[in-house]
């Protein structure tokens, strides 16, 4: 049906196109890795602050399941402490915020590929993150607390001896748990923690008695306990975990943007606007 | 009950995203799958090798990884798609690979005599394929095709990784906001409803195709 000559010609052409494509992708990757190594994990070297000032719009990435920092009300509208704060901060500069929901594990990639201009969503400062992003000044402090059922009578971290502990996988509480074994790890059963992807599932297990304690960020702990049918059934225990500092994450090259946000945050702290927003979301 | 009614609008907004990905994937992957399955029978070994490599990669890696590569990975070499388009592209090329194998199975079940008979009757290559072979192949593959379609309904939930808000994410948001598992129950029911509709539609088409038997 197909002659041998035709076979050879078509095979050659297809093979050539195929290798040309692979070569093109390889060159693209190579150039990109050169760029990446040159400017320290960021793809853009220019300060994007000028573009943001000109277009009067900034894209901020958030995990819209992150209660009470940034989440959605029943009508799907974005609300929360960080949403209010960021909107207010940029409003003073005449810039509107475009909120982009992202997957939390992809946040640094989203930032450094330029899909978003900032991460502003209860973003705790850690050494590993500081290698990839530039943080603003700390605007919020929170520590890790232990939530337990009142009837189990756990009032100190030492009371967790041989009890089962739960937390959120890859949260800063999870990091602190392994980093400071003396604080809590040495007491709990098998020196292990049960990891959940979201806290609502962990709370469910706490109520069901499958875990005895839940290691959780102070802000979330208060929000979740307040939203349980019987808030009085729970005990929140503050222990010796170091305080987590929350900041806004920017690209390392965006110095202008970072300075502007720092300045506005300082002004908000000084004139009480910060307190106002805090009271709205973290009322105890 | 009241509560479920309250969160239903946000879930339905997520449902729109789910259905968008679902329908565009079906529309894109069926023709691509047919082309790929024909390519596997190509007389040119280079085309066969490339297609086999493509199917190996698509079926051999998790769809979640493919989504990450299409959106973030291609973005790194300068090919940037918007989020929704990236999701649809990843789903189409993934599902086309699975569908191609199903079509290939259907094509191989056609007896040689069908082609010979068509040739004797004076059909050309295209007529033979579209008028004789394809209608019979479709009939054979409906059950296994249905499997993939139902899988697709559920796989659409993976789009969360590139920040798209589908129905499962909407359920996640409601669950973490209101500290209850009820939204998941409602999400589950909506998925069941979708797969029920797909199942009924496939049964119907199977019956209608059976008129040739």
Please describe what this structure looks like.
The complex is a heterodimer of chains A (about 280) and B (about 210). With about 280 residues, chain A is an alpha/beta fold. Chain A has 2 domains: about 50-140 and about 245-280, D-Maltodextrin-Binding Protein, domain 2 (3-Layer(aba) Sandwich); about 145-240, 3-Layer(aba) Sandwich (D-Maltodextrin-Binding Protein, domain 2), CATH 3.40.190.10. Chain A is built from 11 helices and 14 strands. The longest helix of chain A has about 35 residues, at about 5-40. Chain B has about 210 residues and is an all-alpha fold. Chain B is built from 8 helices and no strands. Classes of the chains: A alpha/beta (about 280), B mainly alpha (about 210). Chains A and B meet through helix 1, strand 2 and helix 8 of A and helix 1, helix 2, helix 3 and helix 7 of B.
Write the topology of this structure.
The complex is a heterodimer of chains A (284) and B (213).
Chain A: H1 4-38, H2 49-55, E1 57-62, E2 65-66, E3 70-72, E4 78-79, H3 81-91, E5 96-101, H4 107-112, E6 118-124, H5 127-132, E7 134-135, E8 140-142, E9 144-149, E10 165-168, H6 172-179, H7 181-185, E11 193-196, H8 199-208, E12 213-217, H9 218-226, E13 234-238, E14 244-250, H10 255-271, H11 273-282
Parallel strand pairs in A: 1-5, 1-6, 10-11, 10-12
Antiparallel strand pairs in A: 2-3, 3-4, 6-14, 7-14, 8-14, 9-12, 9-13
Chain B: H1 2-39, H2 45-60, H3 63-76, H4 83-108, H5 112-120, H6 125-155, H7 167-178, H8 182-209
Helix pairs in contact in B: 1-4, 1-7, 1-8, 2-4, 3-4, 4-6, 5-6, 6-8, 7-8
